[in-house]
Amino acid sequence: MRRTQSKEQSNRKLARLRAQLLEPGPGGAGTAGTGFDVSKSGDARIALVGFPSVGKSTFLSKITKTKSEIAAYAFTTLTAIPGVLEYGGAEIQILDLPGIIEGAAEGKGRGRQVISAAKTSDLVVMILDATKKAEQRSQLERELYAVGIRLNKEPPNIYLKPKKAGGMKITFQTPPKHLDEKMLYNILRDYKMLNCEVLVRDENATVDDFIDTIMASHRKYIKCLYVYNKIDSISLPHLNDLAREAHTCVMSCELDLGISDVVDRCWEELRLIRVYTKRKGIDPDFSEALIVRHGSTIEDVCDQVHRTLKETFKYALVWGASARHVPQRVGLSHVVADEDVVSIVAK
Ligand SMILES: Nc1nc2c(ncn2[C@@H]2O[C@H](COP(=O)(O)OP(=O)(O)OP(=O)(O)O)[C@@H](O)[C@H]2O)c(=O)[nH]1
Ligand SMILES: [K+]
Ligand SMILES: [Mg+2]
């Protein structure tokens, strides 16, 4: 008797939580843009974003040791569930998130919170259901766009500097295709930027690009990998069409198809670099990599090893893709490549 009651209670609690995901709660729509309370860990963070029941939790459970609840009904996942993906010595945090629905950006459900969590990631993996209609992708993109997330896009090539006085000074480096001086004056006036200097370097820049430049502190440029799950349930021609889309992978968590390809693609998109350090006369330790961002130099590698290492730095020896010959003797500004072996020689 007691057990039934408590089960009923917990069912009620779950029902309440699910309702909160769909409707704005007290304090509602305007608030709660702060994401979930999961601290960042590892070398990078990937957010799994998608409509309910596309297989986000199934995917997390496949690629990490974390088990996130999986079920056929919508809103099985009620909060952010972190897992760790180990890849060639790197640790990547994977955030399984509740499903989002249309209107999420305006605060419908916990949509805002989910999207805020996505905004903190280094890569958005958008999980899509291959059996659902094509609009799902643009619907989700619209939700992320509305909160300032720009997917697979570089920041606009427009220089904007606020000034104390002197009015607006607008210059186009090349004749613009979609803008003119009057338009920019009007937009700047709307945003109360009456004194500033503007240089538009990109002839293809649009009004949206210009507004993104003004709003730069509220914009986040993040890479996105689109992953169609459930390909076990679609026709081969349809599968071929999906697989050909840009920035796209296909998989079936159910049949264990394509999962490792998705993981490899995630790694490529993150553009992290593994550097193995080597002491003189000893073989490098390939079980422990230093992880640095794309474009990092020997100086960044030194900083990862120890805060003060570069003060005693004399030169480094590099073996691997970034070396012109092996080993190449290099200075602090040498740019490293994935899987380089580096030996740092101190004074
Ligand atoms: N046919 C098929 N079903 C799958 C596949 N992957 C997951 N599913 C099923 O899809 C349903 C939803 O999976 P979940 O992992 O709970 O989906 P989710 O995106 O985490 O859902 P929410 O947390 O509710 O947003 C479950 O019944 C899974 O068994 C797949 O590759 N093929
Ligand atoms: K589900
Ligand atoms: Mg889930």
TrEMBL record:
Query: Which PROSITE patterns does this chain map to?
Result: G_OBG, GTP1_OBG, TGS
* Domain of life of the organism encoding this protein: Eukaryota
This protein's record includes keyword Transcription regulation: no
Entry-linked Pfam families: MMR_HSR1 (PF01926), MMR_HSR1_Xtn (PF16897), TGS (PF02824)
- The portions of this protein that span the membrane are none
Task: Specify whether Transport is a keyword of the entry.
Answer: no
Q: Which SUPFAM superfamilies match?
A: P-loop containing nucleoside triphosphate hydrolases, TGS-like
What GO biological process terms are annotated to this protein in UniProt? positive regulation of cellular response to amino acid starvation
InterPro entries referenced in this protein's UniProt entry, alphabetically: Beta-grasp_dom_sf, DRG, G_OBG, GTP-bd, GTP-binding_2, GTP1-OBG_CS, P-loop_NTPase, Small_GTP-bd
- What residue stretches are annotated with the OBG-type G domain? 44-271
Domain TGS span(s) in chain numbering: 271-346
Q: What keywords would UniProt list here?
A: GTP-binding, Nucleotide-binding
Q: Which GO terms describe its molecular function?
A: GTP binding; GTPase activity
What the entry lists under NCBIfam families is as follows: small_GTP
Return the protein name: GTP-binding protein
Supply the source organism for this entry.
Periconia digitata
